[in-house]
Amino acid sequence: MSSGSAGVFNRFWSTMGGGEQLASAYALALASSFSVELITTSPFDLELLARRLGKPELAHLSVRLIGDSPTAATEISAEYDLFLNHSFTSEDVNLSKFGVYVCMFPQSFRRPTADDLLRRFNVQAPVSTEVSPFGDSLWIPPLEALQVRASNDEVLTFVVDGALGEIDLVDSNGGVIATRVLGAAQREFVTLPVPHGEFTLVNRSESCTLHILSPRLGDGMRVYIEGGSVNEQGAPAFIKSYDLTLSISQFTESFVRERWGISGVVHYPPVSLRPVAPTKENVILSVGRFFAEDVGHCKQQLRMVHAFRRMVDDGLDGWRLSLVGGCDQQYKDYALEVRRAAHGYPIDVYLNADLEKLDEEFSRASIYWHATGLGTDINEHPDRAEHFGIAPIEAMSTGAIPIVFDFGGPREIVSSEDSGFTFDSVHSLIERTLKVIQLPVNERISLSESAISRASFFSLDRYLSEFDEILKRASS
Q1: CATH number at residue 131
Q2: Pick from 62, 181, 272, 277: CA 20 to 30 A from residue 172's CA?
Q3: Which phi-psi region, left, alpha or beta, contains residue 157 (left: φ > 0; alpha: ψ -120 to 50)?
Q4: Closest Cα partner for 105 from 261, 263, 253?
Q5: Mean pLDDT in order along the chain per 10 residues (476 residues)
Q6: At what angle are helices 18-31 and 460-475 packed, to 10 degrees?
Q7: What angle do CA 16, 19, 25 make, to 5 degrees?
Q8: CATH of the domain at 25
């Protein structure tokens, strides 16, 4: 694939965080061969995004605002030669010629319950119809019909996977109240108004089986198809519509296989490697947004503050802890709790710091802490671990020695006792940190150099070369 139009979809461009850093890297990688649009559901400042992410070339791309309709991304995907979906937990179907789904971590795909649907809508498939195990796709044989019941006036949407023919919505008296003619496109988006009552949805073709994907109601509520014979093979319908699934780590890929039943391709994100700092100070750094623990992807700043306080109380002298990260208004209470806990100790908390301050702290830090997942039930909530870990690599590239939570993406980044250390509790975090602090100077320098070498693997050049090869293989 070497030309045409490409759309890069992300619902969260306006947050300008790590996910958007990676989405923008894909956009710029595609821009060398495609005319690229950044697709969004809410407005954002493109020039600010370019400055915040340190990618001035972004300002030259186009932005497409599609609004918040639950099917908008699916519908507009058909207009591109390549559609890259980099929107966390998206279940949008791809209609483009070539679809790429970038997965940071796969959500569990559960079927809706009767309570979810509030008994508003029911689809019953005959025995002759094959239904996916997720209840989100089915195959309707020629001249076969589904039974549909709507408690209120609804709008039914779905995607038909390449078919000629006609779909009719027929009332109990045999009257046709809605018709859709299908044009054998690769995949085609269909909207059918369904009034209150009981109806049949009929495949009028005498020779073509209709493959229907991802039926939903107009407000986005997923419709679960009951009855039929279950086809145990396959993944959720939305992910099967993509030609290529990219996982940002081996950790993510293991859950893609487990939860979605497919094999993706691991493609590590690129990291903007920082200059090696000529001198380091007695500073332990951690960088990450401030989220409350009950949100899920908490960076655990409060637990790190308590760990460092314990070290100081036990006699550690001459070291500082620096916490840097963005903070939205809705999480200010958590950030203030962190600041209160830090009061009276050599701990600095920088909220929404500018790039100059962030650069300064990366340059100063001798040790880098990353604790996402600490103190949570990781087996029950693996999504609460770090899926990859950009900030630890940035710190390593300056020569900081990483000490990271032993789960998720950071476990792949740090080779324990080679380029850094891992920990699994507050006790082991403190133990590993004191070990580094007490190392002879020559051993600490050697460990720092190993961290720099390991960070270099995640360069932009490696990322671009791999992406080009992955696209060639997938489209050949």
Answers
A1: 2.60.120.260
A2: 181
A3: beta
A4: 253
A5: 88 87 95 96 93 91 95 96 96 96 90 72 88 87 92 94 88 91 85 94 90 92 85 83 96 94 94 93 95 81 97 98 90 93 97 90 98 88 89 97 95 87 96 97 95 96 95 90
A6: 60
A7: 90
A8: 3.40.50.2000
Q: Are 156 and 221 in contact (CB under 8 A)?
A: no
| pTM greater than 0.85 (yes/no) | yes
Residue with tokens 């054998």: 184
Supply the range of the domain harboring residue 168.
Answer: 114-234
For 121, the token pair is 């809508």
Residue 19: what pLDDT?
87
**How is residue 225 written in tokens?**
């198809």
* 39 within 8 A of 67, measured Cβ to Cβ: no
C-alpha to C-alpha distance for 284 and 322, rounded to whole angstroms: 6
Residues 393, 451, single domain; the answer is yes
Cα gap 476→471, rounded to integer Å = 8
Q: Is residue 277 part of a domain?
A: no
String of b and e for 186-206 (b: at least 16 CB within 10 Å)? Answer: ebbbeebebeeeebbbbbbbe
Q: Which amino acid is at 273?
A: L
CB-count exposure of residue 316 (10 Å: 0-12, 13-18, 19+): middle
Give yes or no for a contact between 368 and 396, defined as CB atoms under 8 angstroms apart: yes
- E-only strand ranges, 132-239: 137-140, 145-150, 154-160, 164-170, 176-183, 188-194, 197-203, 210-217, 225-230
Q: Please give the structure tokens belonging to residue 75.
A: 């519908």
Task: State the pLDDT at residue 1.
Answer: 58
- Taking CB atoms within 8 Å and a gap of at least 24, the contacts of 141-145 are 141/203, 141/209, 142/203, 142/205, 142/206, 142/207, 142/208, 142/209, 143/202, 143/203, 143/204, 143/205, 143/206, 144/202, 144/203, 145/170, 145/200, 145/201, 145/202, 145/203
Residues 348 and 295 in one domain: yes
Q: Tell whether 340 and 380 lie within a shared domain.
A: yes
Whether 313 is in a domain gets the answer yes
